[in-house]
Design goal:
Elements (H helix, E strand, L loop, with lengths): L14 E10 L2 E9 L1 E11 L2 E10 L6 E11 L3 E12 L1 H7 L28 E14 L2 E14 L7 E13 L5 E14 L4 E15 L4 E14 L6 E12 L2
Antiparallel strand pairs: 1-2, 2-3, 3-4, 4-5, 5-6, 6-7, 7-8, 8-9, 9-10, 10-11, 11-12, 12-13
Length: about 250
């Protein structure tokens, strides 16, 4: 771990041992304890359509040390998926960009997951404490899926540099159209307001995406797309407009 933080960053190994208890089909609890590692989770499934998961993990080494809280409530109907998420952890920008989804609706169960903004928040090597809440709904009809999400996130950077603290809230809308068996069109729009508190700056960040994705095989997909981005800021030098062509090739193994 070489990221910037006032906390002591350690490299090394960790281990844990524990057990899972499932007294019935509705409830499951897991706990682990070990060297520089501990975790616990509770999963409640009152019906096949409704589930609640709360988890905690603490680790002293690696890219993402510290405590992590995660909660998810999900309810499904015949055509829709409703979801509430809460996440509290320590993170880095690099790790979020590697692990975060680009589009909503990627999960196989129809849930929207935790969307990660790509370009709006600060790019830095610092570790930050992150708190994020999100609500989302997706509705499927025929070959189309409509999705909406609203969210709020706060980041507190641990070096206390000029970045300091920032928060963001916004909403997303997405339409996916599976017009052939292997080809999908995705239209997505996002609005987000970012408050950079330590520098007295406020931005309104917008983008519109149009992408075509084709499944080439069971493990490979290819995509091409276009994005229009605009950032309106209280700081004149931070305003910009961008047009971007995207091309991706994805392999899973």
């Amino acid at each position: 771990n070489a990221f910037g933080s006032t906390e002591v960053a350690q490299n090394g190994s960790y281990w844990g041992a524990g057990a899972t208890w499932t007294p019935n089909r509705y409830l499951s609890m897991t706990a682990m304890e070990g060297d520089r590692f501990s975790s616990a989770s509770v999963s409640l499934t009152p019906s096949q359509r409704t589930s609640l998961l709360v988890s905690y993990r603490e680790r002293d080494v690696g890219f993402n040390p510290g405590a992590v809280w995660n909660g998810r409530f999900q309810h499904k109907t015949r055509r829709s998926v409703w979801q509430l998420n809460y996440l509290e952890d320590t993170q880095t920008t690099q790790r979020l960009l590697i692990t975060g989804p680009v589009f909503l609706g990627r999960n196989q169960d129809g849930s929207l997951g935790l969307f990660v903004p790509e370009d709006s928040l600060s790019l830095t090597d610092e570790v930050f404490e992150r708190k994020r809440a999100q609500g989302s709904v997706s509705y499927q009809t025929g070959k189309s899926t409509l999705a909406l999400a609203v969210y709020r996130e706060r980041r507190d950077f641990l070096l206390g540099t000029a970045v300091g603290e920032e928060s963001a809230h916004g909403g997303l809308a997405e339409w996916q159209w599976q017009f052939t068996g292997h080809t999908q069109a995705i239209l997505q729009g996002n609005w987000e307001r970012i408050d950079f508190r330590d520098v007295n700056r406020e931005d309104d960040y917008w983008y519109l995406d149009l992408m075509l994705t084709r499944t080439l095989s069971r493990l490979t997909t290819a995509s091409v797309g276009y994005r229009h981005t605009r950032n309106d800021s209280s700081l004149d030098t931070a305003e910009y407009t961008e047009n971007r062509i995207l091309a991706t090739f994805r392999v899973e193994y």
